[in-house]
């Protein structure tokens, strides 16, 4: 004799293993949402940098470092415009979501200003803090560019690639300033 189970079949919920973080109710469920969330995050980050970079330039003493920071500030303003174009391309209003990582990196940079004397040692600290920021941005733009390519958003990918190249260039310029002048002078201050 065959018996049938009278229980209603349901789609099984994914079992959350012990120690695995439970997602928020508005968590991204697809690559498009993750891409959009990343755009909001870096949009906030770039806007925050337009306020932080002038402070770094004001506290730097090396003319080459001041020039590198001011040059990157101009690039950052263009990067914000480029991000707005990416939002437009995907049919979304440009909006920012607080970037905890960038907030922390900016705060770390401010801390370096408080913990160093004005001069070459502070300049070396500014370069170190700035390169941490650049490396975060390089990682973020590289990821977003790849997401855009995967999603078939070729124009958005090209815009993100342009910004990625600028971030790599800014990092290289900071390295040159550090290696060719600032770090050597800071070492002599010991």
From TrEMBL:
Residues 1-18 have a biased composition (Basic and acidic residues). SUPFAM superfamilies: Ferritin-like. Residues 1-27 are annotated as: Disordered. It holds the Pfam family DUF892. This is DUF892 domain containing protein. It comes from Flavobacterium aquidurense.
């Amino acid at each position: 004799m065959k018996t049938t189970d009278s229980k209603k079949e349901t789609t099984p919920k994914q079992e959350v293993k012990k120690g695995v973080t439970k997602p928020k109710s508005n968590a991204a469920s697809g690559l498009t949402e993750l891409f959009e969330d990343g755009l909001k995050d870096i949009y906030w980050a770039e806007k925050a940098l337009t306020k932080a970079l002038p402070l770094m330039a004001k506290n730097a003493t090396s003319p080459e470092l001041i020039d590198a920071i001011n040059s990157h500030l101009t690039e950052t303003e263009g990067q914000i415009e480029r991000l707005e174009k990416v939002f437009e391309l995907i049919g979304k209003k440009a909006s920012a979501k607080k970037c905890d990582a960038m907030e922390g990196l900016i705060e770390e940079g401010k801390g370096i200003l408080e913990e160093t004397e004005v001069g070459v040692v502070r300049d070396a600290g500014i370069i170190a803090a700035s390169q941490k920021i650049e490396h975060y941005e390089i990682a973020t733009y590289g990821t977003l560019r790849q997401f855009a390519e995967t999603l078939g958003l070729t124009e958005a990918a090209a815009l993100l690639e342009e910004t990625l190249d600028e971030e790599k260039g800014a990092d290289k310029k900071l390295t040159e300033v550090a290696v060719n002048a600032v770090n050597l002078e800071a070492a002599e201050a010991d």
